[in-house]
Specification:
There is one protein chain. This protein is mostly helical and 628 residues long. It folds into three domains: 6-416 and 552-567, Sodium/glucose cotransporter; 421-535, no CATH class; 569-628. The chain is 76% helix and 1% strand. The protein has 26 helices and two strands. Strands 1-2 form a two-stranded antiparallel ribbon. A hairpin with a 2-residue loop joins strand 1 and strand 2 (224-227). Helix 9 (116-149) crosses helix 10, helix 9 crosses helix 17 and helix 10 packs across helix 26. The longest helix has 50 residues, at 153-202. It is globular and about 85 Å long.
């Protein structure tokens, strides 16, 4: 296998400088909070779509996901199909509506649609969820980089955490979006090259099919059971998650048409993942069926060595110089994800938490300053969490899936369906969040159910009380005794469901806790129904005004290009930068490499220069037409 040389390290360092330069450049664009958090609603749809796609890829894809694919084979390739359809269905549910909220924070609209309690609940649960996931993403990157550099993984955590934080702090959503496109080109270019090279090691795709075990829909991975219920559950959760959680990608573009295009473009890119990411990971299962017998993996045998199979594959296939490009691609993916998280969470903190605590509306400049300092706090917490996660025996993949199930469901359902369902009262979102959190925590920590069943239970309970809230409101006003009976019946039914599903396999202390959990559902059903029924005429009118805004198309000339604003020419910038990076990579030709290695480098350089040239030419044409 190849090892890093000084040329690889120089490439990685140059990439870091490039990322910081992008952030510095876009400091000039950010005149206030709207530009910092929403790009002034002038982010091109193709750029926003690439950002949406890239937000779900990081070093975790090449570590935790690679380890799971190595272990389960075709099972994970089936799960790869989830993403593109979830992009398509989820984003098309709410893309237009998100744009018409005219928001600059993904939870900003909840104050009007629901109430301040809901806004604060969603803000804190969203922040907790994304910060925990961010810690996993950063830990994944550091685990990946450690074998290359031979540096203690926790040292890498600190250095990389600071770099990501700096460029997000400087550039805001414009820096995130522009670098996502360049990062996407790097990521796709290197993985497209790895795909045919990896298949060549084992005799082609036919040999892969012949040598892999047949598809199985049940697997145990690091003590966690995955089956078809997990696949179905993740599809449902991911679809709703994109509908409720991809807000920033939609309100950052100029109009409703571009919001729809954003989701469709991300879905199109998602289908490429099946081949360019999934198949090389399957090849490693055939290439190294027993990792204990491979020298590269021996130092990591006690800490999930399967997470490094993609790293080992690239070190085997890629020449020096391109190893540096590979590392840059991994950093690109993680920096894309984390920078988007930092920017989104800083918008939530400044717009939805800090502004509420101050008790007054802040102006655009104040939001910008608070948001930048909030991103520092988010980055510090994510870095601290990564310290813990890098040594976890539970596994990177399992950590990510568990956080996803516990937190995404309770917040995604009210965020998504609050834009769609007009008749639900203002307290319905708080009820859905409460029930979703109780259901998820009970299923995980008390009943120890599989992840798929946890997802079913949490989704069902959160959606049921959200959708039933108008009926429960009427029932409380007209027949409160019947509602009280229904609350008791619900508690009894949930308790019976617990007992039936655990089948006596729980310890004695767990039974009273099960009773308390069931009673919590019954008690809160009555309590929330009372709150549902207390919505005043004034509050109902506020909600009606909100939906009238959602029915009003965006006036682009007035709302986006008012006060003399002009579109920012991003295509020439991205295209020119990509061509320059491709040209610089051609210097690898002058290193001591074989003809095979030179051919690999030539393919990569051609892809990047050709793609950059297309973007640059298109940008120049559009700019010329705009100036006519």
């Amino acid at each position: 296998m190849h090892t890093l040389n000084i040329f690889d390290i120089l490439i990685v360092l140059a990439y870091f400088v490039f990322m910081l330069g992008i952030g510095w450049y876009f400091m000039r664009v950010n005149k206030g909070g709207k530009e910092y958090f929403a790009g002034g609603s002038m982010i091109p749809w193709w750029m926003s779509g690439m950002t949406l796609y890239m937000a779900n890829f990081s070093a975790y894809t090449f570590t935790g996901l690679a380890g799971m694919t190595y272990t389960t084979g075709w099972f994970m390739l089936v799960s790869f199909l989830i993403g593109p359809f979830a992009y398509l269905f989820g984003t098309q549910m709410t893309a237009v509506l998100w744009r018409r909220t005219r928001s600059i924070s993904p939870v900003e609209y909840t104050y009007t649609r629901f109430n301040v309690t809901t806004q604060q609940m969603i803000s804190w649960v969203t922040s907790t969820s994304y910060i925990l996931a961010g810690g996993v993403q950063l830990a994944s990157t550091c685990i990946l980089l450690s074998p290359f550099f031979g540096i203690d993984v926790r040292t890498i955590v600190v250095v990389l955490g600071i770099i990501i934080l700096l460029y997000t702090f400087l550039g805001g959503v414009w820096a995130v979006s522009v670098t996502d496109v360049v990062q996407g080109v790097i990521l796709l270019s290197i993985t497209i090259i790895v795909l045919p090279l990896s298949l060549g090691l084992i005799g082609g795709f036919g040999a892969l099919v012949d040598k892999l075990p047949p598809l199985s829909l049940s697997h145990i991975y690091n003590g966690v059971h995955y089956d078809v219920h997990w696949i179905i559950s993740v599809f449902v959760i991911t679809t709703i998650g994109f509908a409720g959680g991809a807000a920033q990608r939609f309100y950052s573009v100029k109009d409703e048409r571009d919001a729809k295009r954003t989701g469709r473009f991300a879905a199109l890119l998602g289908f490429s993942s099946i081949a360019i990411f999934g198949i090389p990971m399957l090849v490693t299962r055939v290439l190294w069926p027993d990792l204990t017998q491979v020298e590269f993996f021996k130092p990591y045998l006690g800490n999930n060595p399967q997470n490094l199979v993609y790293v080992a594959l690239c070190m085997k296939l890629l020449p020096n110089g391109l190893l540096g490009v590979f590392i840059a691609a991994m950093l690109a993916a993680t920096m894309s994800t984390l920078s988007a998280v930092y920017n989104m969470l800083s918008s939530i903190f400044s717009r939805d938490i800090y502004q509420w605590a101050r008790g007054r509306e802040m102006n655009d400049t104040e939001l910008l300053h608070i948001g930048r300092f909030a991103s520092i706090g988010v980055g510090a917490v994510v870095t601290a969490l990564a310290f813990m996660f890098v040594t976890s025996t539970y596994g990177i993949f399992n950590l990510m899936q568990q956080f996803f199930v516990l937190f995404n469901i309770p917040i995604s359902i009210p965020l998504a369906f609050g834009l769609i369902m007009k008749k639900v009262p203002r307290w319905s979102a708080a009820a859905a969040i409460t029930w979703g959190l109780i259901a998820g925590a009970t299923a995980k920590f008390l009943l120890n159910w599989d992840l798929g069943v946890q997802g079913y239970f949490s989704t069902t309970m959160a959606f049921v009380i959200f959708a039933a809230s108008p009926w429960l409101s009427r029932l409380y006003r007209t027949r409160p005794n019947a509602l009280a009976f229904l609350s008791g019946l619900l508690a009894a039914m949930v308790e019976s469901f617990y007992v039936a599903t655990v089948q006596g396999s729980v310890q004695s202390w767990q039974y009273p806790v099960m009773v308390l959990s069931a009673a919590a559902f019954g008690g809160t059903l009555f309590g929330f129904s009372k709150l549902f029924s207390q919505q005043s005429v004034e509050e109902t009118e506020i909600v009606a005004v909100f939906f009238r805004k959602l029915a009003t198309p965006v006036d682009v000339m007035k709302e986006v290009y008012g006060a003399g604003k002009r579109p920012i020419a991003t295509l020439p910038l991205v295209g020119g930068t990509t061509m320059i990076m491709g040209a610089l990579m051609s210097l690898i030709f002058f290193t001591n490499t074989s003809m095979r290695d030179k051919l690999i480098v030539g393919v990569l350089v051609f892809i990047m220069v050709a793609f950059g040239a297309v973007l640059w030419a298109a940008g120049r044409r559009i700019t010329a037409e705009t100036n006519l």
